[in-house]
Amino acid sequence: MTRTAVAAFELDKWDPQAQDEAGGTEFARVLIEKTFTGAVEGASRVEMLTASNETSRAYVAFERFTGSVDGRKGSFVLRHTAGDEGLSLVLLPGSGTDELAGISGSADITVDEAGKHTFTLVYELPGA
């Protein structure tokens, strides 16, 4: 059965690690840390690679979440891809641990006008 868990999150750390620019396009590596509150409760660490120029921006990232989803404790990894075509967040198959072992699904991030981040996880979990 498909379930939906919604949480707010705060960016606790945004730490650019390296940058490289050539031919008008800049590459950057960024470490990010987040805290989640709501049906998804816990913290995550993100490794992000970005590319940007005058007309386009894109990123890829992996995010390791540790905490609970709807009260089930464990961890999982999200794969991010984003660019002009939109944002895609997919749970990495086989990355769930403990009570989140076997989790699959996708997620979405929205930011409201006040800058508040909302994380919506649509998932399936065997035995849940």
Automatic annotation (TrEMBL):
Alphabetical list of InterPro entries matching this protein: DUF3224 (IPR021607), SO1590-like_sf (IPR023159)
Q: Check the record and name the Gene3D superfamilies matching this protein.
A: SO1590-like (2.40.350.10)
The protein depicted here goes by the name Uncharacterized protein DUF3224
